[in-house]
Design goal:
A hairpin with a 3-residue loop joins β9 and β10. This protein is globular. α3 (70-84) packs across α4 (101-113). The protein has helices at 3-8, 26-34, 70-84, 101-113, 127-133, 148-157, 159-163, 181-190, 296-304, 340-350, 377-385, and strands at 15-19, 22-25, 52-55, 65-68, 90-94, 116-119, 141-145, 169-174, 195-202, 206-212, 222-226, 230-234, 239-244, 250-251, 262-271, 277-282, 287-289, 292-294, 309-319, 323-332, 360-363. The protein has a 13-stranded mixed beta sheet. Strands 3-4-14 form a three-stranded antiparallel beta sheet. It has a three-stranded mixed beta sheet with strand order 19-20-21, with helices on both faces. The chain is of the alpha/beta class. The chain is 27% helix and 30% strand. 43% of the residues are buried.
């Protein structure tokens, strides 16, 4: 059954989409989609019955257009429904860019199960709109997808307010970038009865695996077991390789499916004894310190567990002896002074290997990120090259 037929099969007088002042019932949504009329969500083409086109962020190279087939979209949809438990009572807040997989992929499971989409036109730039959305449908259970950077903002500035909605929030999914373990633990304390998912997905692979870290263990870096339409293996050099029906058809202008039905990512990872995937960081982000490998995400997570650090990024700087050495750019939390020695001591206390501790610390006003919340490492690399 196609997504259009699933939408047609829903109760037609029920609200399907709320976007600002506009509300659309399932009957009106179906009519507009059949006629390719404007919608407050991206058609990404003239019909929802053909291929879709999404955009990568270009964090580690040139931005690309990815072709996602109808088959892949439906496989992603079923993975999400089974993995996260979407129902007709789900009120899902779309709080990000719908031309990227993170938010775009949530449109379909919501509509396929008869739920309601609440679209924030300005995303999480306006947190008041996010909290206002939580008041729109009394008695409903809410869900949302938030990148780790947005979750961190909520934890820093609106933790108490978020906790007041603990009984209304069914689940929160995150992805697109690693989430600091300290933030995972904080969110678990605020929302003890909510499902909190860390998902492994990319534009090329689709939605592959997910883990509810509010399981009493809160395993850092864990992404759970592969979902029904996906598979995961680890290559001999330690990279995550994905297979299954969720894979892209290829890149524009001449789509070529992944060789052998497997897409090898640039992410390093491993599979534990329970069959759960764990991520160790991107292969091309690794900093080579005199032959020792340092994952910048590990350094950043250690730094972010310090209350004085609001945001940070670990980057390589040239070193006359080591070749490269880690450096940390820090945004200081409000009310805290920038104390590089205190930050260094804190990181050294959390990381057992001394070579992982940055040698250089700089205070900055903000950390550059891509439009979907990832650390923009390319920005800092290109500045060094100039």
């Amino acid at each position: 059954m196609t997504i259009l037929n699933k939408i047609k099969a829903q109760r037609q007088d029920k609200v399907a989409v709320i976007c600002g002042e506009e509300s659309i019932t399932y009957a009106e949504l179906y009519r507009r989609m059949r006629n390719a009329e404007p919608l407050p969500l991206p058609l990404l083409g003239t019909s929802w019955e053909g291929d879709f086109r999404l955009h990568t962020t270009g964090t580690t190279g040139k931005a690309k257009t990815v072709v996602v087939s109808q088959k892949a979209m439906m496989a992603n949809t079923d993975n999400l429904i089974r993995g996260h438990g979407y129902t007709e009572d789900t009120a899902f807040i779309i709080a990000g860019d719908m031309t990227h997989l993170g938010c775009w992929s949530k449109i379909f499971p919501v509509l396929a199960t008869g739920g309601t989409l609440l679209i924030l036109k300005d995303g999480m730039k306006d947190t008041e709109a996010f909290f206002a959305a939580l008041e729109l449908l009394p008695g409903r259970r809410y869900a949302t997808f938030l990148v780790p950077a947005n979750i961190r903002i909520l934890l820093q500035f609106s933790a108490g307010r978020l906790a007041r909605y603990a009984d209304r929030i069914d689940f929160i999914e995150t992805g697109a970038a690693p989430m600091p373990h300290s933030d995972m633990q904080h969110l678990c304390r605020l929302l003890p009865h909510s499902r909190l998912y860390n998902t492994y997905a990319s534009t090329e692979t689709g939605v592959v695996a997910t883990y509810n870290y509010n399981d009493g263990r809160c395993l850092p870096g864990c992404l759970g077991k592969p979902l029904p339409h996906s598979s995961v293996t680890i290559t001999p050099d330690g990279r995550i390789a994905c297979g299954g029906d969720t894979l892209m058809s290829g890149y524009e202008p001449d789509p070529v499916p992944p060789h052998g039905g497997v897409f090898v990512t640039n992410d390093n990872g491993f599979i534990d004894g329970e069959g759960m995937l764990h991520i160790l960081g991107r292969n091309d982000d690794i900093i080579n310190v005199g032959g020792y490998k340092v994952a910048p995400t590990e350094v950043e997570e250690a730094a972010l567990s310090l209350p004085a650090v609001s945001d940070c990024i670990c980057i390589p700087l040239p070193h006359p002896i080591l070749g490269q050495a880690p450096a940390l750019l820090v945004v200081t939390a409000e009310g805290h002074a920038f104390d590089k020695r205190a930050i260094a001591r804190h990181i050294a206390g959390r990381l057992t290997e001394r070579y992982k501790v940055p040698l250089t610390y700089r205070q900055v006003a903000r950390i550059e990120r891509t439009d979907n919340g990832k650390l923009n490492r390319k920005f800092y690399t290109s500045r060094q090259e100039r």
